[in-house]
Amino acid sequence: MNTVQSPRVSEFESDEKEASYTAWLKQKIDRARTSSKALVPHDQVMAQAREVIVAKRKKHVAG
Prior knowledge:
Layout (H helix, E strand, L loop, with lengths): L14 H20 L7 H21 L1
C-alpha cells in the first residue's frame, strides 16, 4: 500500500531525533566525499544487486 505523507509532518518522533539523524547523515556524506576509495560504477553496483536478488529468490523458492 502506498501511503501519501504530508511534507509538513516529520517522520521523526522528536526534534532532537531529527537533528541527530541529520547530523549523522551529514557526517556520512562528508566521509563519502572525502574518501579515497575507488568509485564503483552504477552499472556494476546494479548488476551485483541483481545477482543478490536472484540468489535470494532461488533460496526462497528452494525453501
